[in-house]
Amino acid sequence: MNVVVGSILMVNIDGREYLLIPNATSVGLDVTLTGNDQLLVLDLGALQSAGGSITISGNLVMESVDLGSLTTVEGSLTVTDNPALNAILISGVTSIGGDLTIIGTAATVIDMSALTTTGGDLVISDNTSATVVDMSALTTTGGDLVISDNNSATVVDVSSLTDVSGNLTIE
Q1: How far apart are CA 156 and CA 138, in angstroms?
Q2: What is the side-by-side order of every strand in the sheet holding 31-34?
Q3: Residues 85, 65: Cα–Cα separation, whole Å
Q4: For residues 26 and 2, what is the distance between their CA atoms, to the nearest angstrom?
């Protein structure tokens, strides 16, 4: 078992197109990738859990994020302002302790089909290419649930939802 103790931090790094850490299975604290203007691909495909938050934000040319083995995030999961991001592999996430925020991507499918609970707000917004937003296993959110301005979405599935502690907005 490979474990990354501590954090993964990549902020405003020029000249790096790929961040490949394919054997990390656990991060004790946070994963933060912000403002990396040349970063195309993030591969944390073996990562199963994060003890803190995962933030992927402001990476203007990033096209792909592989968190395909991720199941648990103790903190928040934030993917914002990555306008070229067309592939977000996060379909295995079952639990997020904090907020889930996906805003401003080019993803055509937002597949969170295994997600059952969030401890905070859940916001999926301004993903103008998204045709499907699948959170079909979601039962509980500890804050607001907002799904808005995903103008191409023809399918929004929250069919198992039973408890929203805050406001529910789907538009």
Answers
A1: 12
A2: 8-11, 31-34, 54-57, 77-82, 100-105, 122-125, 145-148, 168-170
A3: 8
A4: 7
Q: What is the pTM of this model?
A: 0.94
Contact 150, 129 (CB under 8 A): no
36 and 55 in contact (C-beta within 8 Å)?
no
A 10 A CB-CB count for 163 gives 11
Neighbours of 7 (CB within 10 A): 15
What does pLDDT average to in each consecutive run of 10 residues of the chain (171 residues)?
Answer: 75 86 89 94 92 96 94 98 94 97 96 96 96 96 96 94 96 88
